[in-house]
Sequence to fold (122 residues):
Amino acid sequence: MPSLNSSKIYSWNSPSPGGTGTTRVAARLSSRYDGIATHLGMTAHTNPTEVNAHMLKPNKAVQEGYLMKMRINYRKDNKYYGADIYVPTDKVTEAIQVLPNKQWDGTGVITSCRDRVRVDYR
Fold:
């Protein structure tokens, strides 16, 4: 979990569990999401009072089906790293196609994005 200084609250519209309508959901995530948030349909909030959404911790949002954990690889300063990210469940397919070559962690660039399921159950 990132510290409060290096995190922001991100909100997004998510399909409601049960399939009828949408729900506005929010979670505190690392500020590293700034480079990809708009591509995932997320809005960043620096002030918690401006958030009008169902606030969840990231792992609880995964359990309730609002977020899905994915794996990215990124390059920063000629070194390669991996990280787990949270993606709204309705944006997973889009994330795999859109996120490569997007900014991550300041000067880093995402090289690949994939489903966590393949990583966890080999």
